[in-house]
Amino acid sequence: MGLSVMIINIVYLISFICSIYIALSLLKLRKNPLIGIYCCAYCLLCCNILSGVIFKNDLSSAPKAFCFFQGYMVQFICYITSMSAICFSHEIYSLLMNHKHSTFFESKKGYYLLIILYPLIMGIPLFIVCFKTDAIIPRELKCDVANPIWVRLLGYSGANFILSIPGMYFSARSAYILYKHLDRFKDFSLNEDTSQSSQTFPNSPNSQITQSPISRQFSQTKNNLDQKRYSLTKEAVIRMSILSSSIILIHCLGSIGTIISVLTHESLSKKVNLNDWAGSVIGICTFLIFGFSKEIRNAWH
């Protein structure tokens, strides 16, 4: 086992710990199930890659069935993580754009359905192509889809890279909407204070317009709900934007080598490459984005 393989295995182990911490925290809080699914899927990816340690990462001596399973599951799990991230981006985008979800997506059935169907739709053709072309071969870190190189475009190097583009759009639009309506945060707070002042001082100028108790209660409830909605989503949108940007950046970095290899008809290097390093830090990035949020910090108190 070379030094680079040893280091990247340690990075994957750290990413696994970070991801399982976020997943368990969200499970305890019963919040953000889409990010929970994302973290759980990434934990499976880490376990799959670290399973090569059983053979001291000398995967040429591993059984062919093990090598095929490991290489295929890397691609399949990446389908799940990508769709989970896209669904989370769309969830925040829908909340800010429409102030509510459709009934189908509000129950998250639509998101769960996409997370199930997308890996199956993409995974079945990939399995057939890999089986017929014998595209999965041992590499230094793990068994991977590598020969012929164009098969990788059916996996995370191609399909997931394209899928991350809508996520970036949702992130950018959500960030723009948040920035555009920052003044509404102040307005809600001001309206609430004004309403409270009117109740305390009924003869003040702010209370010249008489409201019935029902009307006043409805107005206060609406303002409080709106204020709660924006205060809850402000931090989430920022974290979601950073997450989506990180995912598309990682996919871009991970796809560069594959695209160049396909264009130049070169074989994928068996050494640890940029794609491997990019995948190893996803769990750490997720922890840095979500692990320091107030909700996660208070989950175990």
UniProtKB/TrEMBL annotation:
The UniProt entry, under Gene3D superfamilies, shows:
Rhodopsin 7-helix transmembrane proteins
Q: Which residues cross the membrane?
A: 6-27, 34-55, 67-89, 110-129, 149-170, 237-262, 274-292
Which keywords does this Swiss-Prot/TrEMBL entry list? Answer: Membrane, Transmembrane, Transmembrane helix
This protein's name: G-protein coupled receptors family 2 profile 2 domain-containing protein
